[in-house]
Structure prediction request, 271 residues.
Amino acid sequence: MKPIDDRVSELGEGPVWDVRTESLRWVDIPGGLVHDSDGSSQQLPAPVTAVLPTTTGWATVRQDRVEQGGHVVPVPLGAADRCNDAKTDPAGRIWVGTMARGEVTRRAGLFRIDGESVSEQVGGASISNGLGWSPDGRLMYWADTPTGRIDVFDFDPADGSIRGRRRFAATELPDGLTVDAEGAVWVARWGSGVLHRYTPDGTLDTVLPVGVSHPTSCAFGGPDLRTLYVTTARKPTADGQFSRHGGQLHATRLPVPGLPATPAVFPAATT
Prediction:
């Protein structure tokens, strides 16, 4: 795996490939930046925690809301501090997690957005992070970073309901994740310098070194969806050292492709 972009993010996150434009976007959360693989960057008021392709363009996830073109859907924070990772499910619903700073705080949650409706689907979270769905859309994976758990739910594509929560895998500080075409789950491990690949039964079968200490998330892209993109953060290790290419976008080619991201069905701006 090697760095492929010179831009350095303090906290790079949320890579997502748009199959319509064959482009990748990702964010620098505290910098308020949305980076595009065409070399451009958009400055927005920080924080910007995620960017999502929609049926009409792109939406951004901000401190306490999702917005596109002047249309805003608020996300209730409650005792949490801000929104965090977000993804769209196979039907185009938006899922947004929140986070509360600290260790295992249990003050955050995971929310589903259906048009204008926002509903909490998981409560008692600490740092809601990686999300992904199985190739058949019947399973949803979700990581809560400080707990060291990646959980799996039975997922109903028709109405977006989840049930049967259970542990899928346990690893220290799981961050963003993605799912490949074989149904395996790739997870970035914060502070570890590696990605883990878990087979559908939860068995760890691959440890992929990234080359920097703090990988944050991952997504498949490229015309054949066989390029694995990894965002990273420029953060020091326990001994105070910084990885040379920390904060840059990294990538590698893999034999198994990923799954295309579904554009979000997001309400149009009102006039």
Summary: The CA atoms of residues 151 and 166 lie 6 Å apart.
